[in-house]
Amino acid sequence: MSDVKIVLPESEIPRQWYNIMADLPAPPKPPLHPATKQPLQPQDLAPLFPMALIEQEASGQRWVDIPEEILNIYRLWRPTPLYRARRLEEALGTPAKIYFKYEGVSPAGSHKPNTAVVQAYYNKREGVRRLSTETGAGQWGSALSLACRLFGLECTVYMVKISYQQKPYRRSLMQVWGAEVIASPSDRTEAGRRILAENPDSLGSLGIAISEAVEDAATHDDTKYALGSVLNHVLLHQTVIGLEAKKQLALVGDYPDVVIGCHGGGSNFGGLAFPFVADRIAGRDVRAVAVEPAACPSLTRGPAAYDFGDTAQMTPLLYMNTLGHRFMPPGIHAGGLRYHGAAPLVSHAYELGLIEAKAYPQRSVFQAALQFARTEGLLPAPESAHAVRAAIDEALAAKEEGKPRTILFGLSGHGHFDLAAYDAYLSGQLEDYELPDEIIQRALAELPRV
After folding, report:
1. Which residues on neighbouring strands pair with residue 221, listed in sequence order?
2. Model confidence at 115: pLDDT above 70
3. I need a surface site. Which of 11, 87, 117, 164 has the fewest CB within 10 A?
4. Are 163 and 335 in contact (CB under 8 A)?
5. From CA 212, how far away is CA 202, in angstroms rounded?
6. How confident is the model over 423-437, as pLDDT tens digits?
């Protein structure tokens, strides 16, 4: 029998992260100070981040060493397995080979601890007592709660209210690891109180939750802010995924024609795809596809522009594909993808034509998730299911063309805490949402003038 799982020994965990900044054919536009609109300086970020992360954020160094303390923690779940989805291939009748990199084996059940433990480590090293953060579906909040517990830090998580209501067990998991979890928008911060005054029934958004977490950190001397996606240093840490995948594919003498990842802020997609995009820059024929929800299509329908990373306009201005910092996404079940902007590095790669983007409505995504679960046995998180949908479509295209192709996608987390979403789909209550263009245009009208 041919292997289903391709497993690396712990000695093969990458000892360096890959920084795509070193290989981009043109540099991205710099982040700007929100008040002066001038390029951001390292000291501007000091109230929010430890200096080690600020240095990584601005670094153009291709390879960044992973501290031994982080490697020791990575060994709790890394290397993660690469699977060959043979049963799915057979069910589809496709000549394509389908591989998926499974990050659901981490303690938090997703890829998010890959950066959470790094951020907690550097904060602890610089004497920080507490971290504040936001979370959508709860994967990031869970990961940071775990990381803070491992390093003896306190943790405060502002959880988007719709996800706080839809996903109570993710909230419970954060609390098991000792975190304080607050539904956002809340009355805990000035930003939250302002939103609630405008709309007492607000379901929240990642932009609002970021505003609350940033305000919390900025107003407490012993607290720093931790971000689960979007910024350069976060995507840097996540490249351990793609670097491992390259090693695993090499073991079976294979290489992908297309690499697929779900996309919200960009950390999962960038982490898997950027090591392969480096090969594309060097001339290799490989495609990379970012897959987002049609209800929050930052790459496929959002222009590239300077915008705030949060609703209350407290963060630096980032040049990214954006739906506008005032955009309020509907309460879809892929809560981790409900972010108005795309990571600047992902946006820049998209602008350069190095990656592609697709958007799907949620019923099509859940249909693919069920097909995957009923063949491969693993239940995808709703976010990860977007990559499953695109991978199946690629395999069906290969079948129609009668040509083989090798597909790699990221199964960024399991869906064990998302069964309410599956209940809604199975009972016919899950609806697709056609995002009217006027909603996007109304949010884009409030973009900052730079």
Report:
1. none
2. yes
3. 11
4. yes
5. 14
6. 999 999 988 887 889
Residue 139, domain member (yes or no): no
**Which amino acid is residue 428, in one-letter code?**
G
- 268-313 pLDDT, tens digit each: 999 999 999 999 999 999 999 999 999 999 999 999 999 998 877 8
Query: Per-residue pLDDT for 333 more than 70?
Result: no
Is residue 240 one of the residues assigned to a domain? yes
Q: Is 61 exposed, middle or buried (0-12, 13-18, 19+ CB in 10 A)?
A: middle
* Structural domain total, the chain: 1
Residue 124 lies in a domain: no
Q: What pTM was computed for the model?
A: 0.95
Contacts with 102 (C-beta within 8 Å, 6 or more apart), sequence order:
80, 81, 82, 83, 378, 411
Which amino acid is residue 332, in one-letter code?
I
* CATH number of the structural domain spanning residue 383: 3.40.50.1100
Q: In what order do the strands lie in the sheet with 97-102?
A: 5-6, 82-84, 97-102, 406-411, 258-262, 287-293, 356-360
Which residue range is the domain that position 433 belongs to? 5-10+67-109+233-439
DSSP lists the bridge partners of residue 131 as: 155, 224
CA dist 294 and 278 (Å) reads 28
Within a domain: residue 52?
no
What pLDDT digit, counting tens, does each position of 168-190 carry? Answer: 899 999 999 999 999 999 999 99
Q: What angle do CA 391, 337, 53 make, to 5 degrees?
A: 105
Distance CA 327, CA 397 (A): 34
